[in-house]
Amino acid sequence: MSVSSRPDGRRNHPLSRPVDVLERRVRVCIVTAAVLGVPLVGAAAGGAAYEHDRSVAEAQRDQWRRTAAVVVSEVTPGMSRGDLAGDGEAGTAQVRWTAPDGRPATGVAPVPLGADPGDRTHIWVDRQGRVATAPLNDTGVWAGALAVGVLGGATAAVAGVAAVAGVHCVCEHRRDRSWEREWDAVEPEWSRRPH
Question: Which of 136, 132, 139, 138 is nearest to 66 (CA)?
């Protein structure tokens, strides 16, 4: 079986059907779009997440304040490090502090593991004096942006793979239908049955 040259200089297989050529061209377009689009989608999603988280972190820093508190109960382990903004392993305990309006307040807050009743610590409170977690820090903002960027890029890549698979299924269906039509025309000749 020989491979013929076409007038435009490209080589084509003699058994190649128009649907094969169409599938090949559409795959090239989808792969090209994916190669260019995946990084762009990832960068756009990561950039949007960074801007959003940065504005949230700024709002939290403006609205929340760090205040001194006294631990009044035993520490229960199990809080994540992020709740203390990197101040070490954390747990929760009942604490007492002075609210922004000067009234004494109590509540459960994240505190360092190993703190004993009577120890001084610092907690974050909102404008109403309620316990809050630590505001987002730069590491948290960047980590969130990176995660969203990677997820956005991965989603775009999966969409590209799904598009290629979808095109293949449609083209395969067309090839099968074409083979059936051709076989319906040729089979009576081979089997000597009337058409």
Answer: 132
- How confident is the model over 77-102, as pLDDT tens digits? 876 544 554 455 788 999 999 988 88
Half-sphere exposure of 43 (CA within 13 A, CB side): 5
Contact 134, 108 (CB under 8 A): no
Per-residue pLDDT tens for 104-131? 999 999 999 889 999 999 999 988 888 9
H/E stretch holding 5 reads: strand 4-5
Q: Smallest Cα–Cα separation from 129: which of 83, 72, 69?
A: 69
Helices (H), the chain: 18-63, 138-191
List of residues 6+ apart from 46 with CB closer than 8 A = 145, 146, 148, 149, 150, 152
Of 114, 82, 115, which is closest to residue 96 (Cα–Cα)? 115
pTM of the model: 0.67
What would the pLDDT profile of 52-80 be if each residue is shown by its tens digit?
999 999 999 999 999 999 999 998 887 65
